[in-house]
Amino acid sequence: MAFRLKLRRHRRHTPIPGRVSRDRNILPKLLILVAAILIIVFILGDHGVYRLYSMKREKKRLLEEINQLREEQHELLAEKDRLENDLEYIERLARERHRMAKAGEKVFKVLEKPEP
C-alpha cells in the first residue's frame, strides 16, 4: 500500500499535457511587476535619478551664487579698506558724489537741456 500512495502522489504532481501550470504563469508576471516597481522607485523615489539630477542642478546654482557673493565680499572689503585709509579716495568721492570743493575752488553744475 505504501507503494501505491507514492504512485498516487507522483501522479498528482505530473503536469497534464496541453495544460500550463499556474506556477509558470504567475512567475513571469510577478517578475515583471517587481521590475516595474523597482524602476519606478529608482527613477521617481526620494533617492531616484530625477531627484539626483535636481539636486546636482541646485548644487551648481548655489556654488555659482557663493562664488558671486565671495567676489562681492572681496570688493566690499577693499572699498572699506580704502575708505578707512586712503584720504585722496575719500576726497574724490566727496567731490563727485556730494559736490564738495576745497577752499577757493568753484563747483560748476552742468544742466542738461530738456528735450522738447
Strand composition percent: under 5%
Number of helices: 4
How much is the average pLDDT? 81
Low-confidence runs (pLDDT<50, min 5 residues)? Answer: none
Describe this structure in words.
- By secondary structure, the chain is mainly alpha-helical.
- It has a domain at 29-98.
- It is built from four helices and no strands.
- The protein is rod-shaped and about 120 Å long.
- The chain starts with a helix and ends in an 18-residue tail after the last helix.
Topology:
Blueprint: H1 2-13, H2 22-44, H3 49-85, H4 87-98
Summarize this structure briefly.
The protein has 116 residues and is an all-alpha fold. It has helices spanning 2-13, 22-44, 49-85, 87-98.
Structural key phrases:
single chain, about 120 residues, mainly alpha, 4 helices, about 0% strand
